[in-house]
Specification:
19% of the residues lie in helices and 22% in strands. By secondary structure, the chain is α/β, with parallel strands linked by helices. The protein starts with 11 loop residues before the first strand and ends in a 13-residue tail after the last helix.
């Protein structure tokens, strides 16, 4: 019998953090610790070397060479080719990805740079949605299970409704066909920014979905990830469920019980 604390035993999970808005260098290690101590995973946490605001260096990306899963929480990085190649090779190998919030706009290379295509390409081809815009920093999101998604393993033990501090990202008309929407978000108190209140603006967008990326690996994407979200048991469990699903261990997710 596989015990709950062995459900990720033998899996190497690499957490890649590099953004300057949401303290991922503080929040993601909490998930990594749970994956290690409660589920037996080997974990590696990588952060922006010279501070979250420096986009040019995340040391240790060679750890992706033997990773079973990469979890990304990055924004507007400009990694040199000698570092970026580990990400490209990982994806080309068809390995799975979990991506959070700003990872839809993971890279921001200048026009004409050899890696410029990844500015939108990581969001579109890997995670399933690029950066478009949001409903304002003072707003929040009411999250509910998408129609027909309740039985998905990533949603085991997740309430049908909860509140997220993350302000809602516009995702529609993404993600693309073939994606499985898991959670939808309705904007709460959107800011009057000249866009949010127009009659043609959808107020509900996907906030979590699964798909297969261009290299062939499983993907779980969520546009949530505000630091306060990590205080929610529902959100932490969602991420750990997603990790299990991404590595093909969904049959080891304990249904309805705290992971």
């Amino acid at each position: 019998m596989i015990l709950p604390n062995e459900s990720l035993k033998g899996r190497h999970i690499v957490f890649v953090c590099g953004e300057d808005e949401y303290d991922s260098e503080k929040t993601m290690p909490l998930i990594a610790e749970e994956a290690a101590t409660k589920h037996g995973a080997k974990v590696t946490v990588l952060t922006a070397t010279f501070g979250a605001g420096d986009p040019t260096d995340i040391a240790g990306l060679e750890a992706l060479q033997d990773a079973d899963l990469a979890v990304f929480y990055i924004r507007f990085r400009q990694l040199p080719e000698e570092q970026f190649r580990y990400i490209r090779e990982y994806l080309e190998a068809g390995k799975p990805v979990v991506g959070l919030r700003t990872s839809t706009h993971a890279f921001q290379y200048p026009v004409g740079h050899p890696l410029e295509k990844w500015n939108d390409g990581f969001g579109i081809d890997v995670l399933g949605a690029p950066w478009i815009r949001h409903f304002g920093h003072s707003s929040s999101t009411s999250v509910s299970v998408a129609w027909g998604a309740a039985e998905h393993p990533a949603l085991k033990g997740i309430p049908t409704h909860f509140e997220s501090r993350s302000w809602l990202y516009q995702v529609l008309p993404n993600p693309p066909e073939g994606t499985v929407p898991l959670l939808n978000g309705a904007t709460v108190n959107p800011e009057d920014n000249g866009w949010s209140y127009t009659s043609e603006t959808p107020r509900v967008h996907p906030v979590a979905w699964t798909r297969i990326h261009a290299g062939g690996g499983r993907v779980f994407t969520t546009t949530m990830g505000h630091p306060e979200d990590f205080e929610l048991e529902a959100f932490r469990r969602l991420l750990l469920n997603a990790v299990h699903w991404a590595v093909g261990a969904e049959h080891l997710i304990e249904g309805g019980e705290e992971l």
